[in-house]
Amino acid sequence: xxxxxxxxxxxxxxxxxxxxxxxxxxxxxxxxxxxxxxxxxxxxxxxxxxxxxxxxxxxxxxxxxxxxxxxxxxxxxxxxxxxxxxxxxxxxxxxxxxxxxxxxxxxxxxxxxxxxxxxxxxxxxxxxxxxxxxxxxxxxxxxxxxxxxxxxxxxxxxxxxxxxxx
Length: 166
Fold this sequence. Notes:
By secondary structure, the protein is mainly alpha-helical. The chain has helices at residues 5-19, 32-37, 40-46, 51-66, 84-89, 92-103, 109-120, 129-141, 147-158.
């Protein structure tokens, strides 16, 4: 079975949220020690994920936890210009969606950069809009003070028709 980091991450995320319907206090994902020492490692192996993919997914989560942006939100962050590999990996829909989220206060400039970094770290040649939405959701899940943005994004992920942002 050919799986990607994103497959492992989605499995982790969906099963983790099944156990905890809301983000944990302080808004963080499991840390590397909890992942390595818990039953989760065995569960992932039993689900059919290979050890290298599991380790790369854990590394991805570790990098997400280490790159937590500052708590202070800057409403007028810098304009983002995508270039080279980012243009190849993130299509116009993805880039437009990131701009939409930032303009509507779901992401600030630091969080946007975190999402771009984590999307670029996926082992895929291209990241489609659906995959990017999952990356945004996981990034917001790991952000203290982003509970409202996380809740809105989670709602958008599971609705047939996304609600407009006011």
